[in-house]
Amino acid sequence: MKSDIVSRYQGIYIAMYSAYDEAGNVDQERVKKLARYYVGKGVKGLYVGGSSGEGILQNAEERKQVLEAVMEEVQGELTIIVHVGANSTRESVELAKHAETVGADVISAVPSIYYRLPEAAVENHWQHMIDSTNLPFIIYNIPQTTGFTLSTGLLAKLAKQDKVIGVKMSGESTFELQQYKETGGEGFLVFNGPDEQFLAGRIMGADGGIGGTYGVMPELFVQLNRLFMDNRIEEAQTLQTKVNGFIKRLLSYPSLYGACKYILNLQGVATGAPRLPLLPVRPEHHASLAELNKDIEAAIAQYTNGE
Ligand SMILES: CC(=O)N[C@H](C=O)[C@@H](O)[C@H](O)[C@H](O)CO
Ligand SMILES: CC(=O)C(=O)O
Q1: To pair with 245 at 20 to 30 A between CA atoms, which of 4, 42, 187, 221?
Q2: Global pTM?
Q3: Was 210 annotated as part of a binding site?
Q4: 55 lines ligand 1 (CB under 6 A)
C-alpha cells in the first residue's frame, strides 16, 4: 500500500516564496518565472503557500491564483505540494478541493491558529481536508509558530490512513523527528523543516527536506542531500556549515523572507517585497545583500563544477 511512497516523494522541496507586483498584488507571471527558475536544479518539487509562501497572509482567491500559475508552468516537471491550511476548516477544505482540481500532487496543512485548540479539534480540522479529496496529505508540524505540537499518539492515528503519507517536521528536535519516523512506520515520509540542521534531520531519519532558504541556493541543498546519500558525511558537514553561514546572514535582516526575496531579485527573478506585517529590507541593506548573493553564487559555482 504505502510501500512505494518514500521512493516516490523523497527529496528536496523548495518552500517557494510568493511573487507580487510592485503594488503588492499576486503577480502570476512572476510566480511562473520563479517556478520555472527551479526546474533543472535537481530539486524534487515545490511546497506552495506555506510559511515562506505567505499563504496565511493571502486570501483564498490569491492562494488559488498562485497555485494555478505554478501548475500551468511546471506541472509534470516538479512535484507540487500545496499548503491548504487556513484558520477555518471550511476555507481549508475549499483550498484542498481546488488543489485537486488544478492537478496538485499532495496537500498539506498546519493546524488552525489563534485559538488554543484541543487535539481533537486539530484532528477533526485535518480530517475534513483529508476526506475532501483523493490527494495524499502531509501534516505540517511547526510548533514554534502555531503553538501546537503534534503528539506521536495523534500521528499514529492519522498515519493509519493510506492518504496520510508524511509529516513536515519544522520543530527543532531531531529526537522528535526520529520518533515521528518510527511512529509513522514503513512507507511514512518525514521531511526536515529547519534548514540549519538538514543534515542532522537526514541522519535521524528524514527522507528529505522542505525549506525556505533552499529557494536562494537550491543547488547547495541538492548537493548536501547527495553527499548524505553517498555517505560522505564529513563533506556534508562542511557544506552544512557553509550554508549555515549564509542562513545566519539572511536571518540578520528585518525579515528572513524579505532578505531571501531581495536575493532572488539579484538572481534575476523579481518577486516583490514580502507582505506586511513581514518587513521588507531597506536601502541600507542592499550592499550587504549583494555581497551575500555573491558569496552564495560562488559557493554554487564551486559545488556544481567538478568538486
Ligand atoms: C519558520 C520557517 O519559515 N521555517 C522554515 C521551514 O520549516 C525553514 O525553512 C526556515 O525558513 C529556515 O530554516 C530558516 O530559519
Ligand atoms: C519553510 C517551509 O517549509 C515553509 O515555508 O513552509
Answers
A1: 42
A2: 0.97
A3: yes
A4: no
